[in-house]
Structures are given as structure tokens and as C-alpha cells.
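In response to a reviewer's request, we include the raw inputs and outputs for one of the modeled complexes. The two entities were modeled together in a single run.
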Amino acid sequence: MVDIKKRKEAGADSSAVAPSLEDILQRAGKSQDFHQFSPFEGEAYIQVSYYKSMVDEQKLTLSLLPALQQNRAALSHPHDMKEILPFDDMLLTNDPREIESKLCTGYLLLQFSAATDAECLLVNIRNDTLGQRTSNDTENEFSVVGPKAGFVENLDTNLHLLRQQMPVPELIFRELTMGSISKTRVAYVYLDGVTNPQLIETVEQRLTSIDFEIFFDSSQIDQLIADKSNTPFPLFLSTERIDRVAFAISSGQVAIFSNGSPYGVTGPSNFLDFFISPEDYYLPWILGSFFRLIRIISVIFSIFAAPLYVAVLTYHFEVLPDSILGPLIMSRLHVPLPPVMEVIFLEITIELLREAGARLPTKIGQTLGIVGGIVIGEASVRAALTSNILIIIVAFSALASFTTPIFKMANTIRLLRFPFIILAALFGGLGLIAGFFLLLGHLLRLKSLGMPYLVPLFPFRTGNLQDSIFRASFQYLHTRSKFLRPLKLSRYKPSADKEDIDDE
Amino acid sequence: MGVKVKESLQVSPYLLWFLVHGSQTGVGMLSFQRKVAGGAGQDAWVSLLLVGLLFHLLLWMMFKLLSYSEGGDILSLHREYFGKWAAVMIAGWFYVYGLLVVAVQIKSYGEIIQVWIFPDQPLWVITALILLVCAYIVSGGFRTVTGISFFGVIIPSFLVLSLYFPLKYAHWNNFLPMLNHDTGDYLLSARHTLYIYLGAEFILLYLPFIKNPKQAQKWAHLGIAHTTFIYLIVLVVTFAYFNLQLLQHTVWPTLILSKIIRLFFLYRFDYVYVFTWFIVIVPTCCIILWSIVHAMKQISGRPARLWLWISVLIVGVIVQLERSPVSLQKLEAVTAAAGSLFILCYLPLLFVWISIIRAYKRRLTK
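The model returned the following C-alpha cells for the whole complex.
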């Protein structure tokens, strides 16, 4: 106890007294990728310091050193250098703290005098693209129609991609540095004059109040800024698709990117957002609406099909007509397990297959499909572990859970099935309906950045339904959703549908 | 107490429709026909309509009363006009009455579950399940309770369509001769009808949580009209399907009506009915539990969560208290009497009394 306290005090002391430039360079020198040299022997005091692992060596040898050599005579003051060097991101400072943090992120330090409090020049020759992948295909959110390009791990590339999509001055990027060790660059993006300023303030405030060590992915930020952490539901939508993020920003939402993560986080999101696929908008509205409806129905099916099987076969077989009951009994004739064990066994098998498939390399993954589909399916029926009908139900509900376009929500739906199966096994239909109401109550309690999660269903908002359970024609999608409280409601002026009878 | 509710905690006025309708309809709809037909027979629908109209008048009275108070609920009204102890008394009365109503709802539903579906399931398990769901929802606050009552009205609405099937066997001459009863019979029917309309009076406790109460009044009236309409069509279909003698021996006529429905994949539609009724009774219990818990929190200054668990425990005990075939009827009778007395005697008296005080004060200031 005392030890910790002492150490804490010591830590506070060291942060209170600013270290000198010399201390900093000494500390950096402990690491072997820290290089220091003087380009000229003797004459003037010039020292170059940098982390070799962070800088672009080409910039150093092809641009910086030649410029220094050509202007040997004029090198008396850092101000002169600033005019001469062919770089855009340079700054003069004598603040040791700033120098330290900039050095670590790939700046090069130029010292012109041995005095420790003299001004030095920091030059940005960071190598951003080293070690980054160059392909930016969307890997997990695929669509047949529509763009295939997605975000990558590099923040600048991502912001470039975004501004390319929306080249207007209203698109604002705000950057923060987060994480005490990772010093991750985090940017939030919004559309000035559209996004509600209150929302921007909330995002800014939540982001700045985070204290965290290392950020690996934007999904950590997503969890840290969530209104409630005790929920299986994702409160923010995260996507690697450029069109999704651009659409969210243009609707008046805020997007958050972090360096090192190919996923953008957009919010505030509502429940129905997670069942929207960009393809809904690239297909004619009739098809788009149909597929969206299929997706929503498949979610309901995926959650309730197996529990319903358990409830009916355990308690309520009298609700089924003889024509259905007969085949059910026939297929369960040799199964020794009670329905709930049977369902849980099969559901866990499917989850195992999925989990194994996700961990295995793609080429082996295909074999897994055959093993899972044919061997386990066929064999477990032969071995009388499950009934044929249940295999169909469970396979269908697994398929149905994959139709959800957002991975996080698909995972939630996978999980939700299990409490429902248990409730159905304990209380039959009563358990199912109680579980449904608990789920509804839980969804009603959730908020995303202060916005109710179930909007526009509850609080019921008319005028926002044209893009919810179905997608209306673009003729009717010309306004933004009111519940996001955007400053400008109208997106564009729709043109009237061409009436045949008037023209022909 | 008396502190204005923050606007961010309030809900839109139109939701009062679902709150009022949701708190009125409960387990009573499954069984009210037999008792209602006791007095005026095939003409009982007249009494039903009259009580509906009476509730419009009472609702108007409640809104008028609450507009006289600064805090906007009945507790602050009592405190402002009669002092602190009157507020404590009325809160206590609402608390006991609310617990009784919730207990009746749960006990009746538990009985239906036992008779219809799970003869072997002990009552306390069913009670615990319902109460836990209610407690979870109520602890989410008024917004969650409102949301539940919204969905609790929307989702079961499809059951109205199921009334089409009994109508195929309707005997419309069951209604003849029309209007051949005397006033006493109508009043007897009306007395039994009153019970199924009860629940709207809890608006006296939660109205401060509605934005713009003046504008909300029309939605509350719509809620009562909705209730009247639903009860009316259920009653009319019941009378068209059953004859009065058969009805006298039917405990849950609404469920029997659904029993004749056979779909190609579903032979027992009444199961769907019974389970869907969970969605009808839970909002009722939640609204009432929230209202009384909130009232007790205001009066005592103790945290609402404590009161919620105390209330849930008491309801559980009341449901378990006496296990005999007539215990439910006794409980129902006590609750109905308490509610009727409050809404028919105390409320009008209070209205007149406060109107007199206000008139007197106005004259004084002149």
C-alpha cells in the first residue's frame, strides 16, 4: 500500500518538474532505433535526432540532407531553415514535452545550438504507409452491386476516401489524440450545418473524457463511449464501407475513425439501422424493400424458431394439428434426449462450426463446411442424437442470422437464442412471451448518444417510416430523419414521377 | 414534491392514449361478459356505453383537478389545499389500492394459466415470472413503462381480427327484444362494468410526466373511447355467439370464443390468446407499479428502487395469501369496491370541495 502511494507520489513529482531536452534525448537514446548525428564535422553545431523506425529514410536522404548541405552557409538560425527545407509540416519550439511526443510520432529534431533552451526545429518526415496494406476491398461487408472499396488501417487514407466521396467544405474532420500509451489519432467527422451541434458536443465530450491505455480498434472507442455497457446490443454501427459512413454523415450522424482501424463508427444509431444494407439503395425500391423485410423477418425467425420448437414439443404439442404432429413424432422417435437438450446440442454444434470457420484460413474453411454440413448433420441423425426436422430448423435459423449486414448485430442475435431456449424449456410459451417482453423492455431502456434505440418505432415518429422497415422510392426519401434533429431537413428536391398518360 | 418534472423525462402527449388504454384493459376483458350480463341481460351493452361516457366525464374532472395544482399530480394537490398529511393519506391509499389491482391482475392471469395450460405449474412460479418482468421494466423508468404500454396496445391488436371466426356462427336475434329492461337492471350491469374501466385514475399520479397536459387531454379521451370500443365489440360478439343461459356458466367467454378457431398449422388458437394476454396485463401492472412507487418515493424520500422491491414482495404475498376457489372473487370484489368508491364518491366530492375553496378564495381576493 505504502509502496504504491510512494510510487504515485514519485510519478506526480516527475510530471510536475518538466524534464530538460537533454534528459529526453538521453532517455530516447536507450532505445536502439533512436539515431543522432551531425551532418557537418566541426563548423557549426547542428544535430539531427530521430527514431529510425518511424521516419521515411528516403525523405531524409533525398530531401533533407541535400537541402542542409546546399545551404551550409546560411545555417545560423532555425528560422532560416524553415524557409529552406522542402517540407510542409515543420514547427519551431523549445518545449521539451512537445519535442518528446513529436519525436515518438515520426518527427525529426534539428538542433542548432548546444544550449538546451534554444529553439529547435521539428520536421515531419513520418513514414505513414510503411507496413500498411494497399488493397482496400471490403472484406466482410460485401455487396454485389455498388462500390467495393472500403476503409483501411490508415487514418489519413480513410479521411481521403471520405472527402473524395463528399468534396464539400461542410465536411469537417476534428482530430484528437487518445490513449496514454498508444497515442492513437482519433478523428470524428460531421457535416457542418446539418449535424446537430448538440450531438457534436456530446461526441466531443464523451471522446475527451475517455482515459484508456492502448487503442487497437475503433470498436473499443465504440464501447467506451456507449451510453450503457451492460447490453449485448451494439449501440453504434461500425462499418468498413465508405458509402455507409458517407450516408450516415449526410443524414446528420457523426462518424468516428481511429488510426489503425479499418472500421468507422457511426452514431447515434437505432435498432433498425443494423438491418439496412447499402444494396437496398442500389436496387429498385420494390426489391430493396422486399429484401429488407426478409432480413427483419429472418431475425425474428432466427431468435424464435428453435425456442418455439422446444416450447411446443415440451409442453404444448396439442396446439399442432395431427398432420404436423405425426411427422414430428416420427422423426423424434429414436431420440433419447428431451427437446431442450437436443436443441442446445445442435445449436452449440453450429456455433462451433462457425467459430472454427472464422478462425481457420479460408482454404481449410471450405473443408470444414463439408465436415460440418454432411458428416455431423447426417451422422447425428443416424446416431439418433437429433431429429431431422430440428436440423432443418436450426440450420434455417443459423442461415437467417447471417443475413444481418452488420457483424456485431449478427453476433447479438446468435447469443439471444440461448436465453430464449432456456426460458422456453422452463416455462413453455409463457417463458417465450416473458422473454420477449424482457427483451422489449431492455431495448426500450437503451439509448445511443441520448437517442432512444427503438426510434422511429418508439417513440413513434411518423414521417420517418419511409426508410425503416421498408425503403420507399427516392422520390420520398428527400428528407433526413427528424429524430436525428438535423439542422437542415431537406436533402434534395425530388422530381415527379413521369406519368405515362400525360406524355403518350 | 411539487417540483416540476424535467422536460427530458417527459413523454409526448399522444402516448397518453396508450397509457390510459393500457392501464384500463387487463385480465378483466377475458371474463367480464358474464357479470355484465347479470343485470340487463342482452341489453348490457347500453350500460357499457354509459359507463364509458361516465369515464369521459370523470377524466375531464381529473384533468380539471390537476390543473388547479402547481405540481400537477394528486399528491401536490392535496398538499397545497389540505396540508402534508392529506398528501400522505392519499398516497397511502393509492399504494394499497394499486397493489390490490396488480395482485388481482396477476392472480387472475395465474389462474387462467393453471386452468388452461399448466395445471401443474405452482402459482408462485408464474407470479414470480410476471413480477420479475414488471420489476425490470419499471426500473427502466417512466419512458420504458410508456414504451411497454405502447407495444402492449399495438401488438395484441391483431386479436381483434380473431373475432371474425365466432361471427360466422352469430345469432343476431340474441339481441332481441331490445331495450326491455328497467333502470335498476341497467344500473346493476353498470356496477359490474365499472370494474373493467378502472385503471384510468392512475393518471392522477403520472400526468406530470406528460408533456403539455392540456393538449394531452384529447389523447386521454381517445384512450377511453378506444377502451369502450374494444369492450363493446367483444361484448357484442359474445352476445351474438352465446345465449344468455350458456353465458351464465362460462367463466372466460373471450377465451371460449377463440377456441373455435382452427388454422392449418394451429389447432388451439386459445393458447395464442392466453400467451398474448401476458402482453396485455404486464403494461397494466407496470403503469400502476410505477405510479405507486413514484408516489411513495415522493412522500417518503426513500429511493424508488427500494419501494419497487417492497411492492413486488407485497404483491407476491397477496397473490399467495389465500388459496381457495373464492379467494380471487373476494380480492376482486374488494378492489372493485375500493376503486369504485374512489372514482364515484371521493373524486366528485374532491372536485366540488376544491371548486368551492377556489371560488371562496377568488371572492376574498376581490
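As requested, we also summarize the result in words. The longest strand of chain A covers residues 171-178. The longest helix of chain A spans residues 285-314.
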